[in-house]
Amino acid sequence: MKSNHSWIVLSYKVPSEPSTMRVRVWRNLKALGVVYIQQSVCVAPDTPEVRRKIQQMEKFIQSGGGETFLMEVVQFADRTEEHMVQLFNDQRTREYEEFFGGCDLFLKEIENETKRKNFTFHEVEENETDLGKLKKWYRKIMKRDFFHSPLMLNAKNRLDLCERKLAEFTEQVYRSEGHIEGQIE
Predict the structure, then answer these.
(1) Tens of pLDDT along 52-105?
(2) ChrB N-terminal domain spans which residues (predicted)?
(3) What DSSP line would sit under 153-172, residue for residue?
(4) If you classify domain 7-75 with CATH, what class do you get?
């Protein structure tokens, strides 16, 4: 499996106290989408954004009295690279599955409010807020989906379904209040 991927490997050591530094480093690197291959050793595809953020983390770690070691890997051995890509896709699968759960809750909420005929502007606002959170969550996962997980398209389709269901619900609210969206009275 020859590829065009190059990689960044970051090994770091942070002081044991304060623990907030260790947690901040871990959270920032996980948000970036790295895979940990050992304790305090993580790998990520070498993209401009990943490189920039890892360099920022290096500075943060060093300014807090920690140590870093950054390696640029042009190419892993074929089997290692296949394994790395699988680890990244496994992480994304877990994230997408959790995202699907969030979408299911959203759709259930719309369904429940529709059954109760709770067609109020307040419900539209609440559901718009919830849909905004789902969109933000989806964008975060997509940003980390370096190798285009097989679930990527399903996630987009599920988000689109949430948008359609909210649009249908909103239309029912306007009808129940005697208004058609965009119509001037």
Answers:
(1) 999 999 999 999 999 999 999 998 998 999 999 999 999 999 999 999 999 999
(2) 22-177
(3) HHHHHHHHHHHHHHHHHHHH
(4) alpha beta
